[in-house]
Amino acid sequence: MNPIFSPPLYKQRQQFVIDFVKENKPRKVIDLGCGECSLLKKLRFHREIEHLVGVDINGAKIKKEMHELAPVSTDYLQPGYEQLCVEVYQGSVTRRDARLRGFDLVTSIELIEHLTLADVEHFSAVVFGYMTPVTAIVSTPNSEFNPLLPGLSGFRHSDHKFEWSRAEFRSWALKVCSGYGYEVEFTGVGEAPQDQQHSVGFCSQIGVFQRLEGRDRCRASLSDDEEDVFSYTLLYCINYPSLRDNNILRRAVVSEVLYWAEQIKNRWMEEKTGKKNDAFTLCQTEGRMEELHLEPHMEMEEKHTEELTSPVQHCWRALPDNEGPEGDEVLWTNSSNRCVSVPLAVLWSFCPKVGELSGSLGNLRHLLMDEPAVKLSQDGSSVLVKYQEQDQEEEAEDLEDSNYAECSHSAEQEEDWEV
Hints:
The chain has 419 residues and is an alpha/beta fold. The protein folds into two domains: 2-239, Vaccinia Virus protein VP39 (Rossmann fold), CATH 3.40.50; 246-386, no CATH class. It has helices at 9-24, 38-43, 59-65, 73-77, 117-131, 166-180, 197-200, 215-222, 246-273, 278-283, 344-350, 352-358, 361-368, 388-418, and strands spanning 28-32, 51-56, 85-90, 105-109, 135-141, 182-189, 204-211, 233-239, 339-343, 382-386. The strands form two sheets. The protein has an eight-stranded mixed β-sheet, sandwiched between helices.
């Protein structure tokens, strides 16, 4: 049946929903009869959705595929500000569950034809009378199209209890609208040959139901005396990483601060000593080449269009007037600590990602407080970065200790072998 359509009919149905989501940007979406979660797997990448739910009566089918709804590695490496919670339930669409109320969009793709006509009435009452979504998309086979499907006799699937004509589907949809306060628009996917489009319609007919204004207030008043029902079984739940999670935000800020503090320290050392630090030049990817005095032959990636002058050249501008610099010595802290002090004001002002993540200088300081990976000055105004020469000396000492331990271990082995 599907080979006569390109793309296949099931993909056209899913694309219809995806196009609706792109245009209308619903935040809370439910897919009834989610089956193998194929539509959910596509919708999770549309990050305007904050809450994505699937429901199916076949728990075994859900369990085979539900773990593919988990975040991918890039979601953890580069979390965004968007939130997304994905849940999958086992349950019947003819039964109520209070957790599925108040959603923006409910989809029922090729589902109702698997229900008995009595259960279709329960379905209508649950979806439109109890869940009352802002929008519902319902698709079902169009029986008038069946004669055009090669090799088909009877229903399109052995589990179908009925297949409606366009008039029958329209009759049911209008009854739903009058009973529950909706309006409907009819469309479909899977076009017939051009000379038969008017006579047979779409292969899959679709009704897009929109809740009428004021219906939400009516539902709220009617539901005050109702007791919440939880009839579904939660099989899977995952929260995607988001910068709205304070722990994730803190890790992102710390990572950016450590990176940029090291780059600023390296450039300051380069300007102070006159020695070129190739490691810094290779790592530096933001800002304008001429303003940061980078080699002209280096290929730079321009991530920001705004003017960005060298943060080293402007360190003193971020400090109070009474802490004015004597030359560029403002970066030094206690010489016995062998550290370079990089003011937080500089990091916040001249490193775009740091400023974007933290929001304010005060919030940046708060996020870095009590963070083991970041060493702050006593007054909390600067990040302290170890001076390079001290690091090299410590590495040399560690290397000597490591070599000594290795030699001692080898000697012990030789003695054992001789014995």
